[in-house]
Amino acid sequence: MKLATLNDGTRDGKLVVVSKDLTRYCAASNIAPTLQAALDNWTDVSPLLEALAIDVEHEAVPCDRFHEREAHSPLPRAYQWADGSAYINHVELVRKARDAEVPESFYHDPLMYQGGSDSFLAPRQDIPLGDVAWGCDMEGEIACITDDVPMGVSKEDAADHIKLVMLVNDVSLRGLIPGELAKGFGFFQSKPASAFSPVCVTPDELGDAWKGSVIHLPLMVDYNGEPFGRANAGVDATFSLADLVAHAAKTRNLGAGTIIGSGTVSNQGPGGDPGKPVSEGGLGYSCIAEIRMIETIYDGAPKTPFMKPGDTVRIEMRDEHNHSIFGAIEQHVVEA
Amino acid sequence: MKLATLNDGTRDGKLVVVSKDLTRYCAASNIAPTLQAALDNWTDVSPLLEALAIDVEHEAVPCDRFHEREAHSPLPRAYQWADGSAYINHVELVRKARDAEVPESFYHDPLMYQGGSDSFLAPRQDIPLGDVAWGCDMEGEIACITDDVPMGVSKEDAADHIKLVMLVNDVSLRGLIPGELAKGFGFFQSKPASAFSPVCVTPDELGDAWKGSVIHLPLMVDYNGEPFGRANAGVDATFSLADLVAHAAKTRNLGAGTIIGSGTVSNQGPGGDPGKPVSEGGLGYSCIAEIRMIETIYDGAPKTPFMKPGDTVRIEMRDEHNHSIFGAIEQHVVEA
């Protein structure tokens, strides 16, 4: 099934069930007022939502027109957002440009940071930028939402705790990252509010494209109206979402509604090289930092600037019939 | 006023107003069911809670006996928990033991990490430890809860967004920290669930002890029944809680119910030295890592082991009349 949270003026919005083709919705208010409320009691609530989803599909219940622009992020605020780095090509690229080695441990021990989850941007909400020098970048990623996960869960069992899947634009302020990482405590100011896709879906909606807790489809990232990234989320994924959930739960329980991200989706080129921009026939990149690395590697210096007010990023994923699965994140950068 | 959240079997507990002497409470259910609900609408709700607090003080409403052991952390789960390092003596000590310099920037640019906030421990809940080799430590700290804070708030204005103050035991797994920090993304597995004091209070409850968004009282940390730390939270605070709130809000809004921590409370010795253990007449330390540093500095090697199952930590703060302000955090370590 497909779920969304409509902006009804409240902090947590209104939970709705959306048709598979994203054209109509029915409010789930009589089942659970919000997505967090549904996740808090998922075992009891999800069969009722699934039944409503069937009715929505058959138009057996009154539905309204679904507009992606009216959607919040599925969880407008969450109790946990932790982001991994499943696509080591991204890490390799970022480090190659500054002549840093990728430690061997990165291939079996995932990188993960704790992100801010107190107020996400809506999928069509502007990205407020305080200073162009902060180096605003998009990061196109996959994310999942879990139910309650017990401390020490195995990778195998972790897969069963993935209840919903969605896309995310993990906004990053590249200009603030080096200084912040040098302090040793990880990202904070350099990771402002992220935005998630208008719709989240249960893994079964992905059909054969969902294998081993990885989505095997291209992530479509457009920048200022041009194709920018078409990396396949099923390729070069060193870690699955289940691996990342298990990593997060090593020393503590994870509360229902925990969001775990894949990190920037990134594919190697056909020869194991860092790949090419879409404009040169490659699969491109899901963030500006990567294309700047490519430019640095090949031309000695980055050419593509980071985002400034007026720039637009669009992130979407389509199924084998070219239908949008999650709706599109589409955000303009604006002066804060 | 003093507020607490009683464990009523729900995830978010039940908001109650507690008498100043911590002996009785009255449920605030008809005003706001949970503390988060109160914070979501603080301007309207807090005057009603203040009025109830006066009635509780005068026994003008039916009250029940308040037992600290029945309390959750004031926010059993939160949308944000970010912890700073206001007490640079702690940072200096930790670095001195490994011959690392404290960068000059640390004295004007606070360290801060994003913590997990999806499920806190209750103030009397056991600390589950998966492996003694993880090096379990307590960290006694002050924390505040904010309402909605706008991006870019000044330090001056930030002070007005501090609505509630409490204590925290920021549980740390020292054995996992070096490896995790070396990866560059900050703490994750090394910071399992924290616990907060049974009661949180509005800053006015602190009277003259609340000056410049700092509490000027000793933090009493007992370890296995013996005094372990008596550092004054008003001494050697390089940053106030307002400074830390402003730091957190530099690039993004902070949602209502954001918790910001002070970092481990730590005082220098009388001559600017690292101080002495309580057993030797000093003010001691609010975490085991610091006493291990002292042992390393003076004796070449740490002597005090980290916590193991059976060990107990108690964290409390008393006013000038020796009355407990927030109730006590008291936790046993148990095998997970």
From TrEMBL, chains A, B:
Enzyme Commission number(s) of this protein: 3.7.1.2
Keyword Transferase appears in the UniProt entry: no
Every Fumarylacetoacetase N-terminal domain range: 1-77
Domain of life: Bacteria
EC class name: hydrolase
Keywords annotated in UniProt: Hydrolase
All copies of domain Fumarylacetoacetase-like C-terminal, residue ranges: 81-334
A GO MF label: fumarylacetoacetase activity
PANTHER family according to UniProt: BLL6422 PROTEIN, FUMARYLACETOACETATE HYDROLASE
Name of the protein this chain belongs to: Fumarylacetoacetase
